[in-house]
Structure formats: structure tokens, C-alpha cells
Amino acid sequence: MSEITINPQEQTTQSSWMPSLKTLAWGALALGTIAAVGAICYSTSFPEAEAGGMCTSSSYLKGLSESTVDLCSDSSPYNSMCIGNLGFTRSMMPQLNTSTLEMYLAEKAWVKELVDPSNLTPVQSEMSMPSIAGMIGSWMKGVWDPCQSPILSADGYVIDGHHRWAACALLDRPMTILNIQDTAQNVLSELANFNGVFSLALGQPNL
Fold first, then answer.
1. Which stretch of DSSP H or E encloses residue 129?
2. Which has the closest alpha carbon to 176: 195, 200, 158?
3. CA–CA separation, 118 vs 107, rounded Å?
4. Rounded Cα distance, 104 and 116, in Å
5. Which of 10, 13, 72, 155 lies 20 to 30 Å from 201, alpha-carbon distance?
6. Is residue 179 within 8 Å of 154, Cβ to Cβ?
7. Residue 175 phi, psi (nearest 5)
8. Pairing state of beta strands 157-160 and 121-122?
9. Which helix (H) or strand (E) is 176 found in, with range?
10. For the chain, what is the mean pLDDT?
């Protein structure tokens, strides 16, 4: 999903972000990933550290990408992140381009918020780990920040932007959401029949 331009006249709330108390599983994942990123950025083994403290290690990202194909699979070391999902496969989920999202938001009440990603639950039951690793790599290189590109949320669930959500959760960084003031089920039902919404299979890029 492309980043949209927020109309300054829209109702917008920038809540103060405070980290939540994560479960042991979430904490282990977040701390493990941060430790790995920290080791990459500050170890003398990786002298390519860039300005601003960001750097990249192809070996780390390759390992993260190859740890599993699907973040939510039984064999994935990260599958605790998917607990509580609503069982929607990637191909069942609504995908929105910028113009479609703007048209949908024009019909709904919503607020823009800064949140801890661990407070959100995915609707989707599968996520591409290579895609998530690629987003983390973009942030590490200072190319693009997935946590600044708003995702669509409703009722505490991720509606659109699952891979960005997972990347920010693994980095343990706050992220921006467009919070629809409705239930997740209502939003999903509306989007299923909304003009311009399309679908993608797991691993298929959103072009």
C-alpha cells in the first residue's frame, strides 16, 4: 500500500507512544532482533556502518529471510506473532492502492495514531518472511522506513499492511496507523466489495 497524503482538515490524533508490557514470546522476539541489529551496526566485524548509526549486513538479512518462508507457519520461530489471527490467507485479504484507500477513508470515521505494534493483532494467517526481511533491510540502510508508512487498522486488528506491521514489531519500533472507527469484520466485509480493491498471493509483490 502506498503512503497517502493526510488532509490536515481530517480528524487526526497523534497519541503519545508508550511501550506496552509484551508477552515473554514477543519480548524474546523483539529483543533478539534488536540485539542482532545492534551487533550488525556496532560490531567491528561490520565496518560498513553508515551515517546516522544505520548499517546493513547481507548475511543477517539473508538468515532472517531464510529462517522461514511464512512467518506464521508451525515451523517458524516467529509464529507467536500470529496468535489471534482471523484465519485469512494472503489471497483473501483486501489490497488497496492510494486512490482506493482515499475513497474508502472518505466514507469512514478514522484517526491517525502512533502505536506499539505489539498491541495489534493480524487478521492475516500467513506473511512472507523474505518480504519482511526486505523491509527491515530498507530501514537498516536508511532507504525507507516501514514504520512511517501508515497501515490500515480497525478494532485492534491489522487490515492492510501486515508485512510492514511485522517488520516494525520485529524492530520493536512504534508505527503509524489509520485507525478505522468500526469493527474489523465490518471493514473486511465492506472492502471485499469495494471498487478498486484487489488481491495478491503470498510472496506476490504489491506493485
1. helix 129-141
2. 158
3. 28
4. 25
5. 155
6. yes
7. -140, 160
8. parallel
9. strand 175-180
10. 76
* Residue 142: Cβ within 10 Å count: 14
Query: Grid coordinates in use for 204?
Result: 506476490
Q: Which one, of 48, 50, 31, 45, lies nearest residue 143 by Cα? A: 50
**Are 158 and 165 a contacting pair, CB within 8 Å?**
yes
Question: How far apart, in whole angstroms, are the C-alpha atoms of residue 187 and residue 156?
Answer: 12
Q: Crossing angle, helix 24-42 and helix 58-66, to 10 degrees?
A: 150
The rounded radius of gyration (Å) of the Cα atoms in the chain is 17
As given in the structure block, the three cell numbers for residue 7 are: 488532509
Mean of the pLDDT values across residues 118-123?
A: 96
Give the residue, 79 or 18, on which the prediction is more confident.
79
Q: Which of 206, 200, 205, 193 is nearest to 93 (CA)?
A: 200
What's the gap between Cα 191 and its chain centre? 19
Neighbours of 153 (CB within 10 A): 26
- Sheet containing strand 157-160, strands side by side: 110-115, 175-180, 151-154, 157-160, 121-122
pLDDT of amino acid 82:
94
Cell output for 138: 530498507
Look at residue 64 and tell me whether its pLDDT is greater than 50.
Answer: yes
pTM for the model: 0.73
Dump pLDDT digits (tens) for 76-96: 888 899 999 999 998 999 999
CA–CA dist 5, 106 (Å, integer): 13
Alpha-carbon distance of 125 to 79, in angstroms, equals: 10
